[in-house]
Specification:
The chain has 290 residues and is mainly alpha-helical. Helices cover 40% and strands 8% of the residues.
């Protein structure tokens, strides 16, 4: 079997590549890395009969989010004044980029072609002599509308970048949840005004069934009935709302008793509670008597 002789590099010229000398009829290889291996044998050159389809490998780099983004990138990259855009240079670079993407994705290049046509139109309008308006004023710069759109787009882009830098839930932080077991205390719902009205109407209906037709004048004291209500509630945890009224004494006493209840509640001496909607209403003292 033929052998291969390896010659070491010359001491006077360190770092030179190692030269491998083969026997006659075999090619010499100078520190060359194999491109591939075919059936275990290294390939140092691309075969001439190898066919590679044109769409075998495509890499799409979506670096720009639209025509305005590309145009703003070209202007900022070369430190052009956005208020005085050199249309010739920018249009030339823009068309070069459009030619590249048009070869691979014509649908994507359509929006860029529209912007390229606008740039060419602006450049052609700048080459023509300016026409004065009817009022004798100077005509508007053909680049004015494009500059306005670029400035608005840049402001929106900067605002979006700042929003993206803000910490977001689920991406930058997570919400910690801890369950703390607490003693459940019954909390009665607050009594609604409508519930008091319904209870009062029911008392009125019951009073009409036992009222007398004797006409008399009686002076009733709210303070006195407030004391009567407090005495009824002493020593009792809860008293039903209807038990505080004496329907046999007539309508005036019922009205004064109801006013006394409202005054006591206003002064914070009574608590009016109800377990649930449409349930009976209960009254109790808001303080513990000495």
């Amino acid at each position: 079997m033929p052998s291969i002789t390896e010659l070491p590099p010359s001491p006077s010229e360190p770092g030179l590549p190692t030269v491998v000398q083969a026997l006659p009829g075999m090619p010499a290889v100078i520190d060359q890395v194999a491109l591939a291996r075919l059936y275990g044998e290294p390939l140092f050159a691309m075969p001439h009969d190898l066919y590679i389809p044109p769409d075998a490998l495509q890499v799409f780099l979506e670096a720009f989010e639209g025509p305005l983004d590309l145009l703003l990138y070209l202007i900022r990259k070369q430190n052009f004044n956005i208020l005085d855009i050199p249309m010739a240079a920018v249009t030339r670079q823009y068309l070069a980029y459009v030619d590249e993407i048009r070869a691979t994705n014509l649908e994507l290049a359509a929006e860029y072609l529209l912007m390229a046509a606008m740039l060419i139109e602006i450049k052609s309008r700048m080459l023509l002599p300016p026409k004065k308006t009817a009022e004798g004023q100077e005509p508007e710069d053909p680049r004015a509308e494009l500059v306005r759109r670029l400035l608005e787009y840049e402001q929106i882009k900067l605002a979006a970048h700042k929003l993206n830098e803000l910490p977001q839930f689920g991406r930058d932080f997570l919400r910690a949840q801890v369950y703390v077991e607490q003693s459940l205390q019954p909390r009665f719902p607050d009594v609604n005004v409508v519930d008091l009205q319904e209870a009062w109407r029911d008392i009125i209906k019951r009073a009409k069934l036992v009222q007398h037709h004797v006409i008399s004048r009686e002076e009733l004291s709210v303070r006195e009935h407030m004391s009567i209500v407090l005495r009824k509630l002493q020593g009792r945890k809860f008293v039903e709302f209807e038990e505080l009224f004496d329907a046999t004494r007539g309508m005036p006493v019922l009205v004064v008793t109801f006013i006394a209840l409202l005054e006591l509640s206003k002064e914070g001496l009574l608590e009016v509670t109800q377990a649930e909607a449409y349930a009976p209403i209960y009254v109790r003292l808001a303080y513990t008597p000495a």
